[in-house]
Every structure is written in C-alpha cells, then in structure tokens.
Amino acid sequence: MKLPKILTIIAFFGSAMAWSQEPVWDANKVKLTHERLADGVYAVYSKDAKTLEAKGAPVATSGGIVVGDNAMVIIDTMLNKRLNKQLQDIANKQGGKHQIYAINTSYHGDHSYGNMYLPQGSVIIQHENTKQYVDKHFKKDTEFMMYNFGKGRGIEQIKPTTGDILVQQGGQITLDIGGKQLQVVDFGFAQTGGDLFVWEPNSKVMWTGNAIVAVKPALPWLLDGHLLQTLDTFKRLYQFLPADARIVPGHGSVMGKEDLRWHIDYLEAVKREVGKAIKDGLSLEETVKRVQLQEFSGYALFGWVHPALNIPAAYNDLKATK
Ligand SMILES: [Zn+2]
Questions:
Q1: Ligand 1 mean position, distance from CA 78 (Å)
Q2: pLDDT tens-digit profile of 266-286?
Q3: How far, in Å, from the CA of 202 to the mean position of ligand 1?
Q4: Helix spans in the chain (H)
C-alpha cells in the first residue's frame, strides 16, 4: 500500500484549522459516556455526541468495550491520558480485572495514542500498515495532531506504542474472549489503508473507526484519497451487515445499518459528478466549482471536507483509473 503523504495531510488539516479557527473539539474538556448495547457490549462516546451530531457538528472520538468470560476488549484508546483514563474507568466498572486486548481501528492519534496508558500486560491489536506508519512517521504525526488539536492536550507526552498482534493486509482475526468471539477485519481501504473493523456477532454490533464518521449529515473524509476503493469497502460493509445491526462510528453515537446509505450515496454522487466533469475536460479547480452537491452540505465541516478534500481525492483517483 502507499503510505499517506503526511505533508499533504498537514496542508489539508491546515485549511480545516484556518476554516474553523480552533480545534474541532477540545481533548481537555470531552467527557465520555457509555451505552450498553447487549450483555458485556458497550459503545463509548462523548456525552454531547447526540446533540452535536444532530447539528452536523464534529464530535470527539468514539470507541467501545466488550467483556467476555476470560478477557476484555477495548476498541480505540483515545487521544490522551485524560480520555484514556475515562475509558479505562468505564472498562473497570464493567469488566473488572480481565486480560485486556486493545484494538486500534487506525493509526490516527485520537484512536491510538492512548495505547501507552493501558495496564501492563495488555495486548494491542493493529493493522500491519498502522504499525508501519507509526514506525516511520510518529514524530510528524504528533506534530500535525498538536497543530490540529492544540498544544497542552497531552499529545506532547505520547510515545509510540505499536501492536503486539498485527492483522495483515486483507486479513482478519477472531478473538475468543470467553463466551464471545470478536472478528477484527480489514474490509479493504476505508480511510488510511490500515483500517480495522470490529464485529461482535451475537449482539450484531460493528465498530468502524473513522471510515464512518457519524450519522447524517456527517460525511466521509477521503484524507488519503482512494474514492473508488473506499466506496467499494462501504458497499461490502453494507452487504455484510444484517438489517438489525448497530454501528458504532468513529466520532458519534450508535447508528443503524440504513444510516450507511447516506455515506454511500454521497460517495456515489461525488463519483458520478466528478466523473462527468472529467469527461467534459474540466480542470480540478473547475470541477471543485461545478460539483457543489448542496444536498449534502448540512455537515458543519462541509465547506472544507467537500471542496478541499473529497473532490480533489475523487478527481485524482478517477483520473488515475482512466
Ligand atoms: Zn478519529
């Protein structure tokens, strides 16, 4: 896989910052709550998630806790010590002193920086591309996270802490925690190329990480490009899920299967309209001007995500596959 071009990402985030004037959420203020989805199965998300997401505003990182008879799984370890502690406090209340497995849905700091604060003996599970990314780009990654989430948010203290178990490209593992078998799956390129989805089959709960940001009107961020592969992954995810599945997205409260349609419809519209623009011989700049897709503009970050990130990503991807 092609590793993300960190400077391009900084430029993108830079424009997000310029656009929003401040970090999209403050890691020193977020308070996490949990929702019981089934026996031993919990979604964890920001207390204000439902209020914010309804307005299309950005929400802090979500995650999860799954408690089995022999072990406990933490899905995503949060950005800093403060948030990781809140997560562990919830986990301790629900699970007690179990063997801990922690899964990172991607290398993004708000999903993995908390790894270093896990109790001794915890086992970390990542995608092999996530470990490779952290091994090569950690310093730059923390710099750009500080740039976007601010200084004094605990990012200064983070040391690289990578996986003990690595999921290979296109692979999946089953984690038997006693009475529950979690599937940790690479469904295909979803945002970073090191994306893991976590499926708990009994309760039919799927954690998606950032691939699915939050319920409508939130939109996907094609940070590392690959419109076509991302769309393909979303469609396979949709096919995989039973009608009554519940989804814990990367940055919001619990959604249903049909909520995925919004994300798929948006990427389909981007693909169709950008494809037409390319056919008409338009430049990237002209394409950005033409492909407005106002019907998707309810997302607070639309003014950046759509023209500065997703349209260029789609344009480059569709041009390259011509
Ligand atoms: Zn995230």
A1: 9
A2: 999 999 999 999 999 999 999
A3: 26
A4: 6-20, 49-54, 81-95, 109-112, 128-149, 227-240, 260-279, 284-290, 302-304, 311-320
